[in-house]
Write a structure and sequence with these properties.
The chain is α+β, with helices and mostly antiparallel strands. Helices cover 32% and strands 35% of the residues. A hairpin with a 3-residue loop joins strand 1 and strand 2. 29% of the residues are buried.
């Protein structure tokens, strides 16, 4: 790691520790002075200032001239239920928001070993890949990458582009309902391309949901990887 990389790592580490202090309530209103933070985290003031600028770009902090740096009250997160029937449009509509979906890109790919196992299809089988953006009342809430068996859903790209809904696109293929088989949740820093689509600062954290949906006969319908802004979404698991 060169000196420049170490500098980036250092201010990101400080930003993460300040963010954690806000999350656990250790800091609830005003940040201590930069000199105190620099001593606490064993860094120079420039590193602290860069960390604060990053958190201000996220909307977590605000600086007031002559007064200091303050914590912004967090915007309420949208509660997103995850269960046997996870439907973006239904979840968003139930909370008084207007759902919409947009196709970012699409292509036909071949199933690698991981996708073949998830979708129970032959290695190298043709899959339709859809990258989509989901919004609620104009606010970007997720970027998803979905894979569908191309022979079973030959018009999935066109139907999604026309409806903005995976559920409606599948219904056009004669699939009236489907359910969630599994969901795995992780977290990571946002990819630069996703940050642009989600209108996020480059150092934001996203929740990552990797899921498989199946039909009534337990045949896999789609394998999907969705990225949610951690400060906008709250995933709620209902059994």
């Amino acid at each position: 790691m060169n000196d420049a990389d170490e500098g980036v790592t250092r201010w990101r580490r400080v930003a993460d520790r300040i963010r954690a202090s806000i999350a656990d309530g250790s800091v609830s209103d005003q940040l201590p002075p930069e000199t105190e933070l620099a001593e606490r985290y064993a860094v120079n003031r420039h590193t602290v200032r860069r960390a604060i600028q990053s958190l201000a770009a996220e909307g977590l902090l605000r600086s007031e001239r002559g007064r200091g740096t303050f914590v912004n009250a967090p915007a309420p997160r949208l509660a997103y239920p995850v269960g046997l029937r996870t439907r973006f449009s239904e979840n968003v509509t139930a909370q008084g928001q207007r759902p919409a979906g947009r196709l970012i890109r699409s292509e036909t790919v071949r199933a690698d070993q991981a996708l073949a196992a998830l979708l129970n299809c032959p290695l190298g089988a043709a899959l339709a890949r859809l990258d989509t953006l989901s919004v609620a009342s104009g606010l970007p809430l997720s970027v998803s990458t979905g894979y569908f068996p191309a022979d079973r859903f030959p018009n999935i790209v066109r139907d999604y582009a026309e409806t903005g809904s995976i559920t409606e696109a599948l219904r056009r293929h004669g699939l009236p309902d489907y359910r969630r088989l599994e969901t795995r949740i992780t977290a990571e820093r946002v990819h630069p391309v996703d940050a642009e689509h989600l209108d996020l600062p480059p150092d934001s954290i996203v929740l990552v949901s990797s899921a498989v949906d199946v039909d009534a006969e337990d045949r896999p319908v789609q394998a999907m990887r969705s990225r949610f802004p951690a400060d906008r979404m709250e995933l709620v698991f209902r059994l």
